[in-house]
Design brief:
A hairpin with an 8-residue loop joins strand 14 (about 305-310) and strand 15 (about 320-325). By secondary structure, this protein is an alpha/beta fold. The chain has 16 helices and 26 strands. It is about 30% helix and about 25% strand.
């Protein structure tokens, strides 16, 4: 019986112990070895005091250790919390405190940043780095973990409703918000996705997204659910499209899943005409709009592969899909598809009335893949869900996506935009209000307006305009450097204009639509 995520790799280890579960830079870890190594890590974590319900940080670069860490933390009964190694110190500090992380799995190269935050966070132990007497936080090395006995693990006291992972994303107040998923929601997604996209044990998946990105659940959970192999793609390959396409060919990848931006870069700079990618049978993309002209060119480049537009906020992992049978026209608008199996979608109007097909409103979703809620954010949870009364005093719970959609008579949904000030760029969610807050934190900035414009290769690009206080004026570079102390690199404006006055609405508010229109016409 599979009711916890570690059951996936243990079952695969029993069926095919020598089948590689994950590969990285030419080296693989078979399912049997992954099961054993994760058992050892779980034992070490338990000796350090990790108990069911605890949260353990995962502060690692991409690699095989990340796979061992995910399943070792889960086998210890804890939830893993992926931390982006590129996070600014202030944001890392906020997550450590918000989630109460006492234990973090990391490396020697990254431990100095954690040691520097030890005095003002709950940190008590690190796993991975070599221990040093002068270090602020004691540690147990990876070699010690590998030498620890494999005493197996026990599911006693754990249920599918226990925490599995907490993934942090941007928050409109400037404080990152943690999306809480359980074993049940994660397993529901893993098995549904494997079924919808026909995953097989002989598949080789592209481990393109990092662990702190929700698309990684497909690679780390759906792949193991059928005993497939996930090829974790290094940061170096991600930044060099020609090198990436060569890796895809060498590893004979069969299923690809990423944001459209990565595929556009492969198309434009990946030397695809020089690669044998005939093994590729399915290409999944999601997180932002794929420019139709680039999608068409890529589908013509890989005629043997099926393409699917994947939609779903991290709060539900996924909820719709659109399989594409033919390349779209260059000016086509792609649907996000119907609600997938074992889920229900509604379109709500401003008064929360359920709208009929053809009318635009907010998409709300009821699905077993849905999050439990936001970590430590009761007020936000109150706003995040729609409650539908049912007979007998029951209530159906739907997640409010905040996305405007229209459903046609065939049941297909069409994405129309966001209700709020959240966008996606290269698959990352960015709260424009959070970016404004970071720019306004500079002493010289009097007012800030942040807006999104179409990116050069599709999707969105963040831009900003600033009004400064009288006096010595900092350069845009200096203001961006200041904002980078609190924002991840992907959220920093690609362009920052310092202007003398803002266009205003009739109520005196900054007219961001006018700024955006001006930026579009001058780009």
């Amino acid at each position: 019986m599979r009711f916890l995520l570690p059951h996936l790799i243990d079952a695969a280890a029993e069926r095919s112990p020598d089948q590689e579960a994950f590969r990285f830079n030419g080296t693989g870890v078979p399912y049997a070895a992954l099961a054993s190594q994760s058992n050892r890590l779980a034992g070490v974590l338990r000796t350090l005091g990790v108990a069911p319900g605890d949260r353990v940080g995962l502060y690692l670069p991409k690699g095989l250790e990340a796979a061992v860490a995910v399943y070792g933390i889960l086998k210890a009964g804890a939830a893993y919390v992926p931390l982006d190694p590129k996070l600014p110190a202030a944001r890392l500090h906020a997550v450590l405190n918000d989630c109460g992380l006492r234990h973090v799995v990391t490396t020697d190269a990254l431990r100095s940043r954690l040691d520097g935050l030890a005095a003002t966070t709950p940190l008590r132990h690190l796993v991975g780095p070599t221990d040093h007497a002068e270090a602020a936080v004691p540690s147990i090395s990876w070699s010690d973990v590998e030498a620890a006995p494999d005493r197996g693990w026990s599911a006693a006291g754990l249920t599918g409703h226990d925490l599995a992972y907490i993934m942090y994303t941007s928050g409109s107040t400037g404080l990152p918000k943690g999306i809480v998923h359980t074993h049940a929601s994660s397993l529901s997604y893993a098995t549904l996705a494997a079924d919808v996209y026909g995953l097989r044990a002989d598949d080789r998946l592209s481990g393109f997204p990092p662990l702190h990105f929700d698309q990684s659940i497909f690679d780390y959970m759906s792949g193991p659910s059928v005993g497939a192999t996930t090829v974790i793609i290094s940061e170096g390959h991600m930044m060099m499209p020609a090198s990436l396409s060569q890796l895809m060919a060498d590893e004979r990848l069969t299923v690809w899943y990423s944001v459209p931006y990565a595929l556009v870069q492969l198309l434009l700079r990946g030397a695809l005409d020089q690669r044998d990618l005939s093994s590729l049978r399915w290409v999944l993309f999601g997180g932002e709009v794929f420019p139709p002209k680039h999608l068409r060119a890529l589908m013509l480049q890989w005629p043997q592969a099926r393409f699917s537009n994947v939609y779903g906020p991290a709060e539900v992992n996924q909820c719709t899909f659109h399989h594409m049978d033919t390349p779209p026209a260059d000016d086509a608008v792609l649907p996000i598809g119907p609600i997938w199996p074992n889920a229900e979608g509604l379109v709500l109007g401003p008064d929360e009335a359920v709208l009929p097909p053809g009318e635009a409103g907010e998409l709300v979703v009821r699905t077993p893949t849905m999050m439990q809620g936001y970590w430590n954010r009761p007020a936000l949870n109150d706003r995040a869900f729609y409650h539908r009364p049912r007979a007998g005093g029951r209530t159906d719970l739907f997640y409010r996506t905040g996305d405007l959609v229209r459903q046609d008579e065939a049941g297909t949904y069409w994405f129309l935009g966001r209700q709020d000030r959240q966008i996606k760029a290269r698959g990352y969610r960015i709260e424009l209000d959070e970016v404004e807050a970071a720019l306004l934190a500079h002493a010289a900035v009097a007012e800030a307006a942040v807006y999104a414009v179409p990116g050069p290769n599709g999707g969105h690009q963040v831009q900003a305009a600033l009004l400064l206080h009288p006096g010595p004026a900092p350069t845009p570079r200096e203001i961006l450097a200041h904002a980078a102390q609190n924002l991840p690199a992907f959220a920093l404006p690609a362009r920052l204009d310092i202007i003398d006055q803002f266009p205003r609405t009739s109520t005196g508010k900054i007219d961001r639509r006018a700024l955006r229109a001006r930026a579009v016409t001058t780009t």
